């Protein structure tokens, strides 16, 4: 089987991070082949992460329009930024698996692979001969990762779903927003992304386990499961109280973590995290010294978390009035000076201009053959010995058909025939 050459770390990136150039290493997943048979977001995000970590990721799409993510905004011309972001660093294969030749190509491809990623409704790929049982019989070492709304077991396993559905059912959405109002949309794909990164962790664990056992396995990831697991407080609050405490909407602060919330200043919004006793005492003393109520910092009722929570409705009006009297920059300056965590609520243009984000290389520039320079969010992986920044743009539909087919042993004549017949499909 053809394997990609081990990529070299970006010397400039390593130097930026303060690491010696001698520390350069191959990317962690160099030599691992991944078949990415997924669409939209959760699955493609997994493939993107694995590609950044050094794996050869082959994005498999169906003839016609390919991954439905190609039709998702934001568009520049005919190119979807959504697709460009989640599929960078991959090779593109577009094949008709219903044709016997296309099915044989897929079987050979999976035989050569270490990992298979899919996010279709449970049972859908069995119809194509691409279910776990079928593929594992041919390739016992295969790590097969499925992502779905509800997982492959349970009474809801047959149901379709998206991140929005999991966010609603998980109890997360019900706790967001103002009391008495319908909860807002989260505006980020929390379910998909959180499930995706858990899948990346599970895949790497399975690959490590395979070193000892020689066997792959099926990883069954559900959006609903991962969001329920994300509750760091609500579940244990309910279970340990004997079912008496059910977290509800509280608006802009957390009743059980005073003071921790969002506040409006003269010219914008900011967050303050003074919920730790020492930070609270510094903050309360500052408020008292700069126009707040005399003695506010000395009130011992507020010096413990239990006391602050019990007297939250007395504390909040004081803090809100103090913040509202000042511009954001002044509040941040005062709080930074006494080491109380705080931040402006930033717009996305402010995020991209943030020197911290720039210093961390969290925006990657790529050279696209049709669009020129494009800028997209980077992944947060940071290794001392290698750079995971992905400069290879997402593939056009079927861009690497011939290359992938040749690596599987198909002759030039066979490849040409499949291209002519539409078995291998390209733009």
What's the structural blueprint in terms of helices and strands?
Blueprint: H1 11-16, E1 33-37, H2 42-52, E2 56-61, E3 75-76, E4 79-80, H3 81-86, E5 91-94, H4 100-111, E6 115-118, H5 132-138, E7 143-148, H6 163-169, H7 190-213, E8 218-222, H8 223-229, H9 234-240, E9 260-264, E10 269-273, H10 277-289, H11 305-310, H12 312-324, H13 328-337, E11 342-344, H14 348-353, H15 355-359, E12 363-368, E13 372-377, H16 401-407, H17 412-420
Parallel strand pairs: 1-2, 1-6, 2-5, 6-7, 7-8
Antiparallel strand pairs: 3-4, 9-10, 10-11, 12-13
In short:
The protein is of the alpha/beta class and 427 residues long.
Order the strands across the largest sheet as they lie in space.
5-2-1-6-7-8
Mean pLDDT: 94
* Fraction of residues in β-strands: 5-15%
The CA-CA distance between the termini, in Å, is: 27 Å
Assembly annotation? single chain
Estimate percent helicity: 25-40%
Q: Helix tally?
A: 17
- Approximate shape: elongated
Strand segment count: 13
Q: Ranges with pLDDT <50 over ≥5 residues?
A: 1-9
Largest sheet: 6 strands, parallel
What is the H/E string? HEHEEEHEHEHEHHEHHEEHHHHEHHEEHH
Describe the structure in your own words.
- By secondary structure, the chain is an alpha/beta fold.
- Helices cover 37% and strands 14% of the residues.
- The protein is built from 17 helices and 13 strands.
- A six-stranded parallel β-sheet has the order 5-2-1-6-7-8. Strands 9-10-11 form a three-stranded antiparallel β-sheet, covered by helices on one side.
- A hairpin with a 3-residue loop joins β12 and β13.
- α7 packs across α8.
- The longest helix has 24 residues.
- The protein starts with 10 loop residues before the first helix and ends in a 7-residue tail after the last helix.
- The N terminus is likely disordered.
């Amino acid at each position: 089987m053809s394997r990609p050459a081990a990529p070299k770390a970006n010397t400039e990136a390593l130097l930026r991070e303060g690491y010696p150039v001698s520390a350069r290493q191959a990317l962690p997943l160099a030599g691992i082949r991944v078949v990415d048979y997924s669409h939209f977001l959760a699955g493609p995000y997994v493939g993107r992460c694995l590609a950044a970590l050094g794996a050869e990721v082959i994005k498999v799409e169906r003839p016609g329009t390919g991954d439905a993510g190609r039709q998702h905004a934001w568009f520049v011309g005919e190119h979807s930024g959504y697709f460009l972001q989640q599929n960078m660093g991959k090779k593109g294969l577009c094949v008709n698996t219903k044709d016997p030749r296309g099915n044989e190509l897929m079987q050979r491809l999976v035989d050569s692979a270490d990992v298979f990623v899919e996010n279709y409704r449970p049972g859908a790929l069995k119809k194509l001969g691409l279910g776990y049982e079928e593929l594992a019989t041919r390739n016992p070492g295969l790590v097969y990762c499925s992502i779905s709304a509800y997982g492959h077991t349970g009474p809801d396993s047959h149901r379709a779903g998206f991140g929005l559905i999991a966010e609603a059912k998980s109890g997360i959405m019900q706790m967001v927003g103002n009391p008495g109002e319908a909860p807002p949309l989260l505006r980020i794909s929390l379910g998909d992304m959180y499930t995706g990164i858990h899948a990346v962790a599970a895949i790497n664990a399975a690959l490590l386990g395979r070193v000892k056992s020689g066997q792959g396995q099926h990883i069954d990831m559900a959006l609903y499961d991962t969001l329920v697991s994300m509750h760091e407080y609500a579940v244990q609050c309910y279970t340990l109280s004997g079912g008496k405490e059910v977290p509800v909407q509280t608006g802009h602060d957390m009743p059980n973590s005073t003071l921790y919330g969002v506040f409006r200043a003269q010219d914008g919004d900011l967050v303050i995290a003074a919920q730790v006793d020492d930070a609270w005492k510094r903050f309360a003393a500052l408020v008292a010294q700069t126009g707040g109520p005399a003695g506010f910092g000395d009130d011992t009722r507020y010096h413990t978390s239990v006391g602050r929570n019990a007297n939250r409705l007395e504390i909040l009006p004081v803090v809100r009035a103090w913040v509202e009297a000042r511009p954001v920059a002044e509040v941040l300056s005062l709080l930074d000076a006494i080491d109380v965590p705080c931040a402006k609520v930033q717009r996305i243009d402010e995020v991209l201009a943030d020197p911290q984000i720039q210093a961390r290389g969290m925006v990657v520039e790529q050279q696209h053959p049709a669009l020129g320079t494009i800028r997209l969010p980077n992944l947060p992986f940071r290794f001392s010995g290698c750079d995971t920044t992905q400069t290879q743009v997402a593939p056009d539909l079927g861009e690497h058909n011939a290359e992938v087919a040749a690596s599987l042993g198909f002759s030039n004549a066979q490849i040409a025939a499949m291209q002519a017949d539409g078995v291998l499909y390209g733009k």
